[in-house]
Amino acid sequence: MNLRVKLLTAFIALVIIPLCILGVIIYLVTFRSIETKHSQQAEYALKAISYSIANVFEGIDTVTDTGIARGVFQGALLPDQPDAYNLTDADQLTLNADQRYFRSILFSHPSIDFAFLYRISGDSERSRIITVFNKENFETLPYEQFKEHPLYQEVMRRNGVPVWIGPYEYPELTGSGPVFTQIRLVKELSKLQRVGILFVQIKNWEFEDIFKHLKLGDNRQTTRYLLVNDQGMILYDDEGRLNGEALQRYLSPPSGLPSGYQSFKSPFDGEESLVSIYPIQDHPWRLVSVVSWRYLSSEIVTFTRWFAAILLVCLLATMVFSLGFMNQITGTIGKIVRFMRKVEDGELGARVEEKGSGELLLLEQGFNHQMIKIHTLFDQVKREQRQKAAAELRLLQAQIKPHFLFNTLESINVLAVQNEGRKVSQMVLRLASILRISIQEADEIPLQQEIEHLRSYLDIQKFRFGDLFDYAISIPEELLSCKLLKLTLQPLVENSLQHGFEGLDRQGRLTVTAHTERERLLLTVADDGVGMTDRQLLALHSARPSDEEPSESSEPPERRGLGLRSVADRLRYHYGSRYGLFVCSAPGEGTTIRCVIPLQETGETNGDTAAEGPARR
User: Do residues 269 and 262 make contact, with C-beta atoms less than 8 angstroms apart?
Assistant: First the structure.
């Protein structure tokens, strides 16, 4: 994952997602708060409305209580001819004072729609029904049928306490009109004997007055009020559309109608609404308020939309700024990374164009200053390595000259004393060939010259040591033009002569071969001498000479392997870390030294290869 993706991910995870989560939490908490606050307000409103409705019923209870207390109903029920006491008689003069007073109350009360009495005892069915207040198109249920009705037992159990029934609950008793009916037992005052049952029906006008004042002046208020019974029948709808319907068709309460106050959110008549239910005290009814949730949440939804729009614009602006800022940062860093990769590939002269500002400009300048310093140090290391290589070459040459020249001149002297002029000439030519190659200025020479130098050296050593060893050189003709560092094979052969055949009780065999493999030139020097132990190999591969094993050589122990390490270091420096010497040996089985260098024909340059050498060390 690159830096740009990381910064963008961090911005989304640490800014955008927390803001969205915070917005959702605020949205949910606000809506929950609206629901809670409205539920509390609805409870207070429904409680006040229930008191008003109860006052309507109590007003009718007071009217009928007055009639019973004045004996109006008892006077109509006790005579043998009850029609003579019919309160609906148009002749006001035939009524006594109490009857006239009560009749004026009935006529003056706007809500009373109809009233009649059931006489408990009577000779005929007609004599059992006494009309108190006329009502057209209404036929009273016969008393004998009413006695079979479930309400009859409830009225008797109440023993004079009014029983109220709503519209549409018992249409056989009250008719199909939107009226509320009071039913109560009438007793004779002196003996408290049950003499009749009073029915009083009232219109819903006063209910309409109550709910009419709850409506707002505008049309935004969508609250509606319902009066329902325990079975869920709608007795009154302030809009008049659901009267007599079942509440369950429009609403699904969580667990039926509650016994106390309850408020919950639920679909009502196809619209999400907040429903509040409040029981009316002393009556088997419940007052229900339904308010559209869309109306309650309209302001907060509008606010939320504006907030979301503003937040979205701010987030987009922030993202555009952040992306531009991040692109500027990541672009500069990416550019520096690309230049660093160029440096890894060896382009030490790579420089970043300094066109940023602030910290980015400092970063670019710091990179360039660092590369200048690295380039300077690298040049210094290259000079030191060249000086070191030259010193090692001079040391190697100096190592060859004193001993080898002294021994060779001594051998020439012996041949001269013995009058071996031909051999003296050959020895002098071979020594001249060795010296000519040694003093050449060029670092690299063709393999053919290196082989001539090696033959001259081996012939001289062969003359000196006689039957100590024999040698064979097998180089394909097409490889003789390949280039390599001078004095590469001679130190390897010298190592075999000095250490491989030392103490050997037979003639040693030395072979020099060459072949190519994957654009590489492989030169192999192998002997069948005494070989080396693991400790000697380890000391040879390390930077220290091995003094673990005693040596019978006249050469000091600290100089053993110095030629091999010098050749290996020169090859590694000149060609790179992938090239060099590889030594394989075992005690009694001889030693094989393989020299691996890049395959180069005469005239080719190895500047690139040499340049990458120190960088890989």
Answer: no
Please state, in angstroms and rounded to a whole number, the distance separating the CA atoms of residues 428 and 602.
29
Task: State the alpha helices, DSSP H only, in 418-528.
Answer: 421-438, 447-465, 489-495
Residue 303, H or E segment: helix 293-344
The mean pLDDT of 490-506, rounded to a whole number, is 85
Q: Please report, for residues 64, 116, 501, 573, the alpha-carbon distance to residue 140 in angstroms, rounded to integers and kept in the order given.
A: 19, 9, 146, 128
Rounded to 5°, angle at Cα 543 from 542 and 548: 65
Beta strands in 238-320 (DSSP E): 262-268, 271-279, 285-292
Instruction: Please provide the size of the chain in residues.
Output: 617
pLDDT, tens digit (0-9, with 9 covering 90-100), for 99-157: 566 666 666 666 777 888 888 876 665 567 777 766 667 778 888 888 888 899 999 99
As given in the structure block, the two tokens for residue 124 are: 């005929």
The burial of 192, by beta-carbon neighbours within 10 Å (0-12 exposed, 13-18 middle, 19 or more buried), is given as exposed
Helix, strand, coil shares of the chain as percentages rounded to 5?
Answer: 55, 20, 30
Where b means 16+ CB within 10 Å and e means fewer, 40-75 reads: eebbebbeebbeebeebbeebbebbeebbebbbbbb
Residues 402, 403, 404, CA angle at the centre, nearest 5°? Answer: 100
> And the tokens for 432?
């001249």
Burial of 225 (0-12, 13-18, 19+ CB in 10 A): buried
Instruction: Give ∠ CA 617-526-472 in degrees, rounded to 5.
Output: 130
> Would you call 545 helix, strand, or coil by DSSP?
coil
Pairing of strands 508-516, 469-474: parallel
The 10 Å Cβ neighbour count of residue 212 is 9
Radius of gyration of the chain (CA): 62
In one letter, which amino acid is 128?
R
Instruction: Please enumerate in sequence order all residues whose Cβ is within 8 A of that of 531, keeping only pairs 6 or more positions apart, or say none.
Output: 500, 585, 586, 587, 588, 589, 590, 591
- With CA atoms as reference, report the closest residue to 492 among 614, 617, 580: 580
Instruction: Report pLDDT digits (tens) over 521-564.
Output: 999 999 998 888 888 888 776 644 333 333 334 444 334 456 78
By the 8 A CB rule, do 82 and 129 touch? Answer: no
Q: Which amino acid is at 491?
A: P
DSSP 93: G
Task: Decide: helix, strand or coil at residue 503.
Answer: coil
pLDDT on residue 558: 39
